[in-house]
Design goal:
With 181 residues, the protein is an alpha+beta fold. It contains 4 helices and 7 strands, in the order ααβββββββαα. Strand 3 and strand 4 form a beta hairpin.
Length: 181
């Protein structure tokens, strides 16, 4: 019955092309506004990914699973031991949030860093690429500047429990239909 209701709603909109076009354009404006905001954040922070969610407990007690981190990738001030960075190793899909233990900079300004999760017993050399002892600028996505505790749990739940996505989308559709009546 609910699918027939959606089809009926669509047919009613199709009978009024101006209303249908207005709704499509409103949706496009929302999507493009979100994309422009994201691109603006990327330019302002110089980070490919200015906002990330902590996915594991390796940084506890400093950061917990579900915390949202805000990143920047400025060269000044230079990277220091103790800075929390997000880095991605080539061949791995998921970025890692860990703290720098050691930072080595050569006379050309090129630096290498050794990282470790606050809640881990050993450093991250086991996570790096084969025979890689440090990470460099090309692996670092950004340095944590601020965080919102636990707000990212929604993202984790939606990835861990796909059925929640369907409930969320269905309820949004329900409220759109109810709101129009």
């Amino acid at each position: 019955e609910s699918i027939q209701q959606y089809v009926g709603e669509f047919r009613e909109l199709a009978k009024r092309p101006r209303s249908f076009l207005t709704q499509i354009l409103n949706l496009a404006c929302i999507v493009f506004s979100a994309l422009m905001l994201w691109k603006g954040l990327m330019v302002a922070t110089r980070s490919e990914s200015p906002v990330v969610v902590v996915l594991s407990g390796s940084m506890e007690p400093g950061f917990h699973r579900g915390d949202i981190l805000f990143l920047t990738l400025y060269d000044d001030p230079p990277l220091l031991p103790g800075d929390v960075v997000v880095f991605q190793i080539e061949g791995r899909d998921i970025p890692i949030v860990h703290r720098t233990m050691n930072v080595h900079e050569d006379n050309k300004g090129v630096y290498n860093a050794l990282t470790k999760g606050d809640n881990n017993q050993v450093d991250d050399r086991g996570l790096y690429a084969h025979r890689q002892l440090f990470i460099g600028k090309k692996e670092i996505m950004g340095r944590a500047q601020a965080f919102l505790p636990y707000v990212g749990m929604i993202t984790i739940w939606l990835n861990d429990y796909p059925w929640l996505k369907y409930i969320l989308i269905g309820s949004m559709g329900f409220f759109v239909i109810i709101g129009r009546e």
